[in-house]
């Protein structure tokens, strides 16, 4: 991980403020486990990459669960979940896409390569 990735994680963690780490970590576990039978993604409502991921999944007729972070606990978990996401998966940005309890990445990169590149290569379809 590079200097800027480390810096971004520190900024996200700092902006999350103090929070109940075990509770938020457990919530992240719950989200990851909910992907055991399909696609689950953590998003922001109007994030352009999140919108693109939704469009790509919809256009490929791939069902998914969209967990909009602003809607969880009136948005109170948005920062803490991103901080925990960074600790665990080294990515704080959204969308954060999971399939069968594996971190796929975002729309374009991260994790196993990102939704769009994995779809283009046919790898995502094999994972389904």
Topology:
Elements: H1 3-16, H2 21-33, E1 39-43, H3 48-59, E2 64-68, H4 78-89, E3 96-99, E4 102-105, H5 115-121, H6 123-127
Parallel strand pairs: 1-2
Antiparallel strand pairs: 1-3, 3-4
Helix pairs in contact: 1-4, 2-4
What's the quick description here?
Belongs to the glutaredoxin family. Helices cover 49% and strands 14% of the residues.
Description:
The protein has 128 residues and is an alpha+beta fold. Helix content is 49%, strand content 14%. A 4-stranded mixed β-sheet has the order 2-1-3-4, with helices on one face. Strand 3 and strand 4 form a beta hairpin. Helix 1 packs antiparallel against helix 4 and helix 2 packs across helix 4 (78-89). The radius of gyration is 14 Å and the shape is globular. The mean pLDDT is 93. This is Glutaredoxin domain-containing protein. Belongs to the glutaredoxin family.
Neighbour order of strands in the largest sheet: 2-1-3-4
Classify the helix fraction into a percent range: 40-55%
- Strand segment tally: 4
Query: What sequence of helices (H) and strands (E) makes up the elements?
Result: HHEHEHEEHH
Protein structure class: alpha+beta
Determine the number of helices (DSSP H or I, runs of at least 4 residues): 6
Oligomer: single chain
Termini Cα gap:
29 Å
The Cα radius of gyration reads 14 Å
The biggest sheet, with number of strands, parallel, antiparallel or mixed sense and barrel status, is: 4 strands, mixed
User: What general outline do the C-alpha atoms trace?
Assistant: globular
Low-confidence parts: none
Keywords: Disulfide bond, Electron transport, Redox-active center, Transport
Domain Glutaredoxin: 39-104
InterPro entries: Glutaredoxin (IPR002109), Thioredoxin-like_sf (IPR036249)
Protein name: Glutaredoxin domain-containing protein
